[in-house]
């Protein structure tokens, strides 16, 4: 398994002078995901929880809808310059009878850590249809509970403490209890790792859950949440206009700027118990 962090010397310049010292960086390495031996995508990610990442990617791309559609996951031999396996190629075998992904899922180029939809074969394929619609989810959660989610997620970011360079995603229940948290250099990878965990734990669809992310709420993250049946997505930063449009279309609650004691509820405000309709 690749390293999660890397140490390297840096020149530190400050008001009291300059000196060379070691610094800790978040590792970023490519992961090639194969399905039944066929290359499907390459994403730049922080090593760790790779099987979850691949499972979550296949779920949120609409290749699979439940755990039983997957058979095995194994690392392939991918030697580095020193001849050792880099563990950067993962092959997922689908269960018998499960169709292979269509061409719209394939990436024409690699997926960067900042963009999970770069290189789509066709723009129309970005807007996927979920089989786990969150529209009828009866989730209701107090604003006071939501206010505590960013701190709870931040407390789970162990690698961020040493690097300051990772995104995070956390899955919470309606009481604000953290179910799982994952970190990655890519915000979409962090979400895929969480979704993959849920799939492997047979929790999909994620009824009654809140997905909390450490950055902004993009169209892509709303899509991934909808594909897993998540009724509420909250973020510490802003959503995009397309993210809000998609959340409304999917019947999801979208919350942005969840900081301190305030938040903006962009869609689905009926699920936030203390927010009254205007």
Could you characterize what this model shows?
With 278 residues, the protein is α/β, with parallel strands linked by helices. It has two domains: 29-126, Ubiquitin-like (UB roll); 143-271, Cytidine Deaminase, domain 2 (3-Layer(aba) Sandwich), CATH 3.40.140. It contains seven helices and twelve strands. It has helices at 50-60, 143-147, 149-155, 158-163, 187-200, 219-227, 241-250, and strands at 5-14, 17-26, 29-35, 38-45, 70-75, 89-94, 167-172, 178-184, 210-213, 232-235, 253-259, 262-267. The strands form three sheets. It has a six-stranded mixed sheet, with helices on both faces. A hairpin with a 2-residue loop joins β3 (29-35) and β4. It is flat. The chain starts with a strand and ends in an 11-residue tail after the last strand.
Instruction: Give average pLDDT, whole number.
Output: 89
Helix content: 10-25%
Cα(first) to Cα(last) distance is: 52 Å
Give me the Rg, rounded: 19 Å
Strand order of the largest sheet: 8-7-9-10-11-12
- Describe the biggest sheet? 6 strands, mixed
How much strand?
25-35%
The low-confidence parts are 121-126
Structural class: alpha/beta
- For this structure, what is the CATH class of the largest domain? Alpha Beta
The CATH architecture of the largest domain: 3-Layer(aba) Sandwich
How many DSSP H or I helices?
Answer: 7
Overall shape: flat
At the third CATH level, what is the topology name of the largest domain? Cytidine Deaminase, domain 2
* Secondary structure: number of strands: 12
Order of helices and strands: EEEEHEEHHHEEHEHEHEE
How many separate structural domains? 2
**CATH superfamily of the largest domain, please?**
Cytidine Deaminase, domain 2
């Amino acid at each position: 398994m690749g390293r999660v962090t890397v140490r390297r010397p840096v020149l530190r310049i400050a008001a009291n002078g300059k000196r060379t010292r070691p610094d800790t960086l978040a590792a970023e390495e490519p992961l090639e995901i194969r399905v039944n031996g066929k290359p499907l995508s390459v994403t730049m990610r922080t090593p760790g929880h790779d099987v979850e990442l691949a499972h979550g990617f296949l779920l949120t791309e609409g290749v699979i809808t439940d755990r039983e559609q997957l058979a095995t996951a194994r690392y392939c031999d991918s030697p580095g310059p020193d001849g050792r396996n880099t563990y950067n190629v993962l092959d997922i075998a689908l269960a018998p009878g499960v169709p292979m992904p269509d061409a719209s899922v394939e990436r024409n180029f690699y997926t960067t850590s900042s963009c999970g939809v770069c290189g789509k074969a066709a723009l129309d394929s970005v807007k996927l249809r979920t089989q786990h619609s969150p529209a009828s989810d009866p989730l209701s959660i107090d604003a006071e509970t939501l206010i505590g989610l960013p701190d709870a997620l931040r407390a789970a970011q162990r690698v961020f403490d040493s690097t300051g360079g990772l995104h995070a995603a956390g899955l919470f229940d309606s009481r604000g209890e953290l179910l799982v948290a994952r970190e990655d250099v890519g915000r979409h990878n962090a979400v895929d790792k969480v979704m993959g965990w849920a799939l492997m734990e047979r929790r999909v669809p994620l009824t009654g859950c809140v997905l909390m992310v450490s950055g902004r709420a993009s169209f892509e993250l709303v899509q991934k949440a909808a594909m897993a049946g998540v009724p509420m997505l909250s973020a510490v930063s802003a959503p995009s206009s397309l993210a809000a449009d998609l959340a409304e279309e999917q019947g999801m609650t979208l919350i942005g700027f969840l900081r301190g004691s305030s938040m903006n509820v962009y869609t689905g405000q009926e699920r936030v118990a203390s927010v009254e309709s205007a």
